C-alpha cells in the first residue's frame, strides 16, 4: 500500500488499495488508479487469494458513483419533510442544529435516551462504527439491534454448533458433492463460482435446490425446485431416508448430543409421502438425493440466506445442519454446512465500545423499530439514520411514516438522496471508501484488509469518523463535558487502532501496520469444526439444544410450516437480489428509471389471471400496490411471483417494500438481539391494468 499521503496531485498514475464495503459475501480487494488527484480506473486485485482480480458488476461503475452529479456534496436542510425543498447550509449550521437538539432533549428529559440511531449494512467498514462510539460518549441512547437479513440462520447455527462459523470458502473445492441450497452465487457471490467449477472439474457433482430456476441452477448438474418455506421439511425427509438406509456416521454418538431423540422424531413424525406433497419434490428425487448425500464424502451444503427468511426460517436451517451432522460431513475437509461467520469480526481495540454501546442503552428491534420507538418512554424525539434506507428497505412502511411525524429532528448521512432522506430535516454528505481509511472483514472468506483513500473528499463530504469528531467538539464547546468522544485525531490511526490483541493473534502479526501491506488471512483451519470440538454447552454438536428450549423453541430441529397465503392475496412474492444491485443500492447515482420491474410467474399462474407476456399488472395487499410487467417463466412454481431488484428505483414511484408487512422469523433474538425479517412471507393479489 501507499503511504499516508496517498492522495497527491502528481501527474504520475498512482495505485491505491481498497476493500469493497458492500454487504455481500465477497468483500473484494480493489486497486484504483488516480491521475492528477482524480480517480481514473478501478480493477480487481489479482494478488488477493480469494477475489483474484475479479470484480462484480456492482463495482464496475464506481467512478461514476464517486463523481456522479446526483451525489450530495454539501450539507442540506429540508424546509419541510417530504417537500424536496432542500437548501445548502454550512457544516457549522448542521453541527449546531444537531448539537443544540441533543442538549435540549437531554435538558428536557434528563437523559440522552430520546436520541436514536438506526444503522445497518450499507457500509460494513469499522470506521462507520464511529457514530456508535460517539453516541456512547454521550451516555445511554436508543439503538436499533438485530438484523433484517440473516438472524434466524445465525441463531440456528449457534444452537447447533455453539458459534456462528463456516469453513474457508476455498475448502469447498475439496468436496465431491455440493448442494447449493437457496443461494445464487453466479449472481451474488461471483468469486465462489470458480471454486465450484474447479470442484466440478475434479469430478464433484453440484446440485442447486431453490424456489426458482436461477443463474446458478443453469450452471450446475441438477436443479431441484423446492416449494417456498418447506426446505426444513425436505431436509427432515432426506434425514429420515438416510436413517432408514443406515447411512448415518458410525462416530455420531461420539460427537453429537440428542441424536437418538432426533432419530426417534424422524421415525415418528416425518411421513415421506406428505413430505413430497408439501415440498413439491418427488419421492424418487428425494431418495436419489438422500442416498447420494449419505454415501458421498466429503459433501458440502451451502445454505443461502433466502431459505431462513420465513416464519419457520431457523427451523429450516437447523434441519439442514442436521443432515451434515448425521452423515459425518461436519468437520470434514470439503464438507459441512456453510452459511456465514462472525469469526473475523473480532476487533478488540479502541472501537470495541462502539460495537457494544453504553450499558444502559435502550435497544429496539431493528425490524420493529417504528412501533417500538413510538411506544418508548422517554420518547424517541431525534433519529439519526446511517448506512441504511429504512423508508424503502424495511417492512411496515406505514409505521415509519407515523414515526417521522412524531420526531423533532431526523438526520440522514448518505451519498445520494433516498426515500429515507426524503423524510429528513438534515442531510449530511459522507465519503465513499475511495476517500477515507477503513478496515474490513468478510462474513464468508477469511481475509481482513485495510482500505486506503485515493482521492480527497468530493465537495464537502466528510467521513463518519470526522463527523463524530466535529460534533463532539461542537457539543463540548456548547456544554463542556457533554461528550466523552474525542474531538480530533488521525483517521488512519483510528482504523489501525481497532485491531486489538485478539485480532493481532489470530492474524499472526505483531502490529496492525503489517496489514498495510495487503489483506491477510486469519490463522484458522480451512475446515470449520475440524476435530469435531464444538462451542455448545456440551462441547458436542447438539441435535437436542437445551439453549433453544430456554428461549421457548423446540430443542430438536422440527418442521414448522411457513405461513399460508390469505385467500384475498394468494400469491407468494419473492424478491431476490439481482446481478447488478444490492437492496436499494441499485445504482442510485444513475438516472432514475421509469421502467417497471418484471413479475416472473409460472405460465399457468399467469393464465389463471388472464395475463400474457408484456402485460401491465398491479400487485397489491393491505400495505399498498406496485406496478409490474408480466414475464411468464417455467422455472418458477405455481402460486409464486419472483421480482428481482434489478433496476434503479424512481424515488417518486411506489416501491416493493410497500408490500412487505413486517412478518418476523422464528429465531434470532438470542444470537443477534432481535428476530429476523421474514421477507419471503409476503403475499399479494394481482390484477391486469391498461395504464
TrEMBL record:
Any signal peptide, and if so, which residues?
none
Q: Does the keyword Iron-sulfur apply?
A: yes
User: Which PROSITE patterns does the UniProt record give?
Assistant: 4FE4S_MOW_BIS_MGD
Domain annotation 4Fe-4S Mo/W bis-MGD-type: ranges:
13-70
SMART domains from the UniProt entry: Molybdop_Fe4S4
Q: Which domain of life is it from?
A: Bacteria
Which keywords does this chain's UniProt record carry?
Iron, Iron-sulfur, Metal-binding
Q: Which GO terms describe its molecular function?
A: iron-sulfur cluster binding; metal ion binding; molybdopterin cofactor binding; oxidoreductase activity
The family database entries (Gene3D superfamilies) matched by this protein are listed as: 2.40.40.20, 3.40.50.740, ADC-like domains, Dimethylsulfoxide Reductase, domain 2, Formate dehydrogenase/DMSO reductase
Family of this protein: Belongs to the prokaryotic molybdopterin-containing oxidoreductase family.
Q: What is this protein called?
A: Putative anaerobic dehydrogenase
| Organism in which the protein naturally occurs | Desulfitobacterium hafniense (strain Y51)
Amino acid at each position: 500500500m501507499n503511504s499516508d499521503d496517498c492522495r497527491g496531485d502528481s501527474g504520475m498514475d498512482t495505485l491505491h488499495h481498497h476493500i469493497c464495503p458492500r454487504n455481500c459475501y465477497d468483500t473484494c480487494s480493489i486497486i484504483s488508479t488516480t491521475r492528477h488527484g482524480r480517480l481514473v480506473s478501478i480493477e480487481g486485485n489479482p494478488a488477493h487469494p480469494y477475489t483474484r482480480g475479479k470484480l462484480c458488476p456492482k463495482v464496475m461503475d464506481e467512478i461514476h458513483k464517486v463523481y456522479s452529479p446526483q451525489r450530495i456534496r454539501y450539507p442540506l436542510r429540508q424546509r419541510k419533510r417530504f417537500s424536496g425543498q432542500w437548501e445548502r447550509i454550512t457544516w457549522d449550521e448542521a453541527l449546531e442544529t444537531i448539537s443544540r437538539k441533543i442538549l435540549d432533549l437531554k435538558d428536557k428529559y434528563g437523559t440522552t435516551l430520546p436520541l436514536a440511531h438506526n444503522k445497518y449494512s450499507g457500509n460494513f467498514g469499522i470506521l462507520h462504527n464511529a457514530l456508535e462510539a460517539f453516541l456512547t460518549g454521550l451516555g445511554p441512547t436508543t439503538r436499533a439491534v438485530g438484523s433484517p437479513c440473516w438472524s434466524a440462520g445465525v441463531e440456528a447455527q449457534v444452537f447447533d454448533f455453539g458459534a456462528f462459523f463456516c469453513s474457508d470458502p476455498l475448502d469447498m473445492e475439496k468436496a465431491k458433492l455440493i448442494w447449493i441450497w437457496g443461494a445464487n452465487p453466479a449472481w451474488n457471490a461471483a468469486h465462489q463460482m470458480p471454486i465450484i467449477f474447479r470442484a466440478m472439474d475434479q469430478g464433484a457433482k453440484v446440485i442447486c435446490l431453490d424456489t426458482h430456476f436461477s443463474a446458478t441452477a443453469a450452471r450446475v448438474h441438477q436443479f431441484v425446485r423446492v416449494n417456498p418455506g418447506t426446505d426444513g421439511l425436505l431436509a427432515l425427509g432426506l434425514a429420515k431416508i438416510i436413517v432408514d438406509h443406515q447411512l448415518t456416521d458410525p462416530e455420531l454418538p461420539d460427537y453429537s448430543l440428542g441424536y437418538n431423540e432426533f432419530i426417534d422424531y424422524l421415525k415418528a413424525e416425518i411421513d415421506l409421502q406428505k413430505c413430497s406433497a408439501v415440498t413439491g419434490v418427488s419421492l424418487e428425487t428425494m431418495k436419489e438425493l438422500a442416498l447420494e448425500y449419505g454415501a458421498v464424502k466429503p459433501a458440502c451444503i451451502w445454505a443461502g440466506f433466502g431459505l431462513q427468511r420465513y416464519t419457520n426460517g431457523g427451523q429450516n436451517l437447523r434441519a439442514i445442519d442436521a443432515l451434515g451432522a448425521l452423515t459425518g460431513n461436519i468437520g470434514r475437509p470439503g464438507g459441512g454446512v456453510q452459511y456465514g461467520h462472525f469469526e473475523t469480526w473480532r476487533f478488540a481495540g479502541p472501537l470495541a465500545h462502539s460495537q457494544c454501546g453504553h450499558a444502559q442503552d435502550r435497544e429496539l428491534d431493528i425490524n420493529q423499530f417504528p412501533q417500538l420507538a413510538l411506544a418508548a418512554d422517554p420518547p424517541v424525539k431525534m433519529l439519526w439514520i446511517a448506512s441504511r434506507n429504512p423508508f424503502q428497505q424495511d417492512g411496515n412502511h406505514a409505521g415509519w411514516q407515523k414515526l417521522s411525524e412524531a420526531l423533532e429532528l431526523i438526520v440522514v448521512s448518505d451519498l445520494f438522496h433516498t426515500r429515507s432522506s426524503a423524510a429528513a430535516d438534515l442531510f449530511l454528505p459522507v465519503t465513499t471508501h475511495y476517500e477515507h481509511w477503513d478496515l474490513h472483514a468478510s462474513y464468508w472468506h477469511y481475509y481482513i484488509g485495510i482500505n486506503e483513500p485515493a482521492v480527497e473528499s468530493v465537495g464537502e463530504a466528510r467521513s463518519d469518523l470526522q463527523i463524530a469528531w466535529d460534533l463532539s467538539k461542537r457539543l463540548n464547546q456548547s456544554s463542556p463535558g457533554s461528550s466523552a468522544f474525542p474531538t480530533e485525531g488521525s483517521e488512519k490511526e483510528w482504523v489501525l487502532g481497532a485491531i486489538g490483541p485478539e485480532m493481532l493473534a489470530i492474524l499472526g502479526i505483531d502490529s496492525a501496520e503489517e496489514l498495510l501491506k495487503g489483506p491477510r488471512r486469519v490463522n484458522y483451519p480451512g475446515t470449520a469444526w475440524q476435530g469435531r470440538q464444538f462451542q455448545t454447552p456440551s462441547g458436542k454438536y447438539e441435535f437436542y439444544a437445551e439453549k433453544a428450549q430456554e428461549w421457548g423453541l423446540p430443542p430438536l430441529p422440527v418442521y414448522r410450516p411457513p405461513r399460508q397465503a390469505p385467500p384475498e392475496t394468494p400469491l407468494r412474492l419473492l424478491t431476490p437480489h439481482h446481478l447488478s444491485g444490492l437492496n436499494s443500492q441499485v445504482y442510485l447515482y444513475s438516472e432514475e428509471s421509469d421502467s417497471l420491474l418484471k413479475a416472473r410467474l409460472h405460465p399457468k399462474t399467469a393464465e389463471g389471471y388472464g395475463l400474457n407476456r408484456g402485460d401491465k399488472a398491479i400487485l397489491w395487499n393491505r400495505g399498498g400496490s406496485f406496478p409490474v410487467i408480466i414475464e411468464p417463466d417455467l422455472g418458477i412454481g405455481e402460486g409464486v411471483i419472483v421480482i428481482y431488484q434489478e433496476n434503479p428505483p424512481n424515488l417518486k414511484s411506489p416501491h416493493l417494500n410497500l408490500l412487505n408487512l413486517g412478518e418476523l422469523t422464528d429465531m434470532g433474538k438470542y444470537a443477534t438481539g432481535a428476530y429476523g425479517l421474514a421477507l419471503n412471507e409476503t403475499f399479494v393479489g394481482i390484477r391486469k391494468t391498461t395504464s
